[in-house]
Write a structure and sequence with these properties.
Blueprint lengths: L2 H13 L9 H10 L1 H29 L23 E3 L3 E2 L10 E2 L11 H23 L2 H15 L12 E4 L18 H10 L9 H17 L1 H7 L4 H17 L2 H19 L7 H4 L4 H19 L17 H13 L21 H10 L2 H9 L7 H5 L20
Parallel strand pairs: 1-4
Antiparallel strand pairs: 2-3
Helix pairs in contact: 1-2, 2-3, 3-4, 3-14, 4-5, 4-6, 6-9, 7-8, 7-9, 9-10, 9-12, 10-12, 12-13, 12-14, 13-14, 14-15
């Protein structure tokens, strides 16, 4: 498609959408007029991805309109040390001690205990899927029916005193006989990222005019907890994907609440701690490669790293292009893992002890990096992968499931 034809297409597409829609068309048109040669391919990837996903998004949205809110209060946790409003989960890899029945649980790294309490996590993932789907459909159509139904779920989780979740994670990833909660449990709320992004998108709806302060207020309080509570400090200082995910979700919630000081703190941490501390010179993540599921964890950490770059970049800061003195950067990380996404059988490390056959899927890192770095091979591979994974473990480790929500946050040129 010629540049002129594409601009005309995007203009027509925009006229059929809400003026607050987040999908790629609006920013692509501006980019093409500014630097048409360099960014026509970028525009094409975003547009083609949107076209590819549109039918399934609208189908899923029709189903989402039928779903009632379910929050943490629907599933009281008997072993929780908190109230009915406190999110509770249990450490995935902790099991009863066969040599000491009734005693403290023992760890079996990489082996998920199916008997652990997961109802709150499943409810949050369901919530994230509903809001992500409705926000995506709203992007595509501008129909207020999606905003109206999303608001019901958002109120239930964040403002209704009968059903809301407290803005803290003091009882997450508990271990029977050892801990009532741990900082490591903060990773469970990565599934609130597309909820936060959905609120940003729905902010343009008149239905949200009187709701935004209360909804963003919940995230302001949670952000305060994440950045001041000892559990938050513990998770921030984690050396592996947990430290990455702390920065990722803190950055996401800081964007929603317009907390520039926290965003800058996250940028500093990304460039001085995450990148030099986790990435090897070849672009791999050695701490993830040491785990019992090195392939899945490498994909997961790459997704989180790329999301950090996406969330923390703006017209003044381009973390996509940030490079350490030895050349380590996000592009190198994607280049390292890409051959093993395209052909998993070429993976030279140990196979994951669980879920080996369920990865990869349409990793968000691949589509976002393809758009940012204008890489046709990465985009082609992303198109060929599974876009609707059903396995619960895969979904749990894939908090970004609606890529069109994020396209307009990708920098518009390589001028920085």
């Amino acid at each position: 498609m010629k540049v002129q034809q594409f601009v005309l297409f995007t203009f027509r597409f925009m006229t059929q959408r809400s003026r607050v829609c987040c999908a790629a068309a609006g920013f692509i048109t501006l980019v093409l007029f500014a630097v048409p040669a360099a960014n026509a391919q970028l525009a094409g990837f975003a547009s083609e991805a949107t076209k590819l996903l549109k039918k399934s998004i609208l189908k899923d949205a029709e189903q989402a309109l039928k779903l009632e809110p379910i929050t943490v209060t629907a599933s009281p946790a008997e072993r929780s040390g908190g109230s009915i409003h406190d999110f509770y989960s249990e450490g995935d890899y902790w099991w009863p001690d066969t040599e000491n029945p009734g005693g403290p649980y023992v760890q079996r790294d990489g082996m998920t205990n199916p008997a652990n309490f997961t109802a709150h996590r499943r409810a949050m993932i369901r919530f994230s899927q509903i809001i992500g789907t409705l926000a995506s459909a709203y992007c595509l159509t501008g129909r207020e029916i999606y905003a109206r139904h999303a608001l019901r779920h958002l109120r239930a989780w964040f403002t209704d005193p009968e059903t809301l979740m407290n803005p803290s994670l003091q009882f997450a990833q508990a271990i029977e006989g050892r801990f009532t909660g741990r900082g490591i449990g903060i990773i469970d709320t990565i599934h609130l990222m597309e909820v936060a992004r959905g609120i940003e998108i729905f902010a343009g709806s008149s239905l949200f005019t009187n709701e935004l302060n209360a909804l963003t207020g919940w995230f302001r309080r949670y952000l305060q907890w994440l950045t001041t509570h000892p559990y938050g400090e513990e998770e921030k200082n984690a050396k592996n994907n947990h430290g990455t995910c702390w920065v990722m979700q803190v950055a996401c919630f800081a964007r929603l609440t317009k907390n520039e000081a926290v965003l800058q703190m996250c940028r500093d941490r990304f460039t001085t701690v995450l990148m030099p501390g986790q990435m090897a010179t070849d672009g791999s993540f050695p701490l993830e490669l040491k785990r019992t599921k090195p392939y899945g964890y490498s994909l997961f950490n790459l997704d989180a790293m790329v999301m950090c770059g996406l969330l923390l970049s703006d017209q003044s800061h381009d973390l996509w292009r940030f490079k350490l003195l030895d050349g380590r950067n996000l592009e190198r990380a994607v280049k390292f893992i890409y051959p093993y996404i395209k052909d998993k059988n070429s993976w030279p490390y140990a196979k994951d002890v669980m879920y080996w056959n369920d990865w990869p899927v349409a990793q968000p890192a691949l589509i976002f990096a393809a758009i940012r770095f204008q890489n046709a091979r990465w985009f082609s591979t992303w198109k060929s992968l599974e876009h609707h994974p059903q396995h619960e473990e895969v979904i749990r480790n894939l908090p970004v499931r609606h890529p069109i929500l994020w396209f307009d946050l990708i920098p518009r040129s390589d001028s920085n």
